[in-house]
Design goal:
- By secondary structure, the protein is α+β, with helices and mostly antiparallel strands.
- Helices cover 35% and strands 35% of the residues.
- Strands 1, 2, 3 and 4 form a four-stranded antiparallel beta sheet that branches.
- The radius of gyration is 34 Å and the shape is elongated.
- The N and C termini lie far apart (78 Å).
């Protein structure tokens, strides 16, 4: 018993569709690949001479669909990266200012005036952990 496997791939794609309606352009193209597979059981020397030397035992077809997108958004990388740097800086500034506010608040209490410097630095961290995170890291929304 000898099996022979034949496979045929049929690729196809449609024309590129462009969309220029925004700050950056976008293009889209659909791609399809059809795979047809045939498995034959060849006997009697394994030669398919057209006289019944092989018998088809399995036929299958599969279709794979995909979409390819293209965009001009990569041209905006420098602008987006700059905005992300400023946003990250603003976020870090908020954390530092919050810790400084916690430190000043705790340092002004009479109980902490005679404590060590290390305890005065640890208390704002504990205060940061006790503060509700959703109030610290989200923007204030007006109603």
């Amino acid at each position: 018993m000898q099996f022979r496997v034949s496979m045929t791939l049929l690729p196809s794609h449609e024309d590129v569709q462009h969309n220029m309606g925004g700050l950056s352009h976008m293009s889209r193209r659909k791609v399809d690949v059809a795979a047809i597979m045939c498995v034959r059981d060849c006997f009697g020397g394994g030669i398919d001479d057209g006289e019944g030397g092989c018998q088809t035992v399995y036929i299958d077809d599969s279709r794979y669909e995909n979409a390819v997108f293209g965009t001009g958004a990569t041209e905006w990388y420098a602008v987006v990266a700059t905005l992300r740097v400023f946003a990250q800086g603003y976020f870090c500034l908020r954390i530092v200012m919050f810790l400084y506010g916690c430190y000043c608040t705790r340092a002004s209490e009479d109980i902490y005036k005679n404590r060590s410097v290390m305890q005065n630095y640890v208390r704002p961290g504990i205060c940061l952990c006790a503060f509700p995170v959703h109030l610290l890291f989200t923007a204030v929304r007006s109603q």
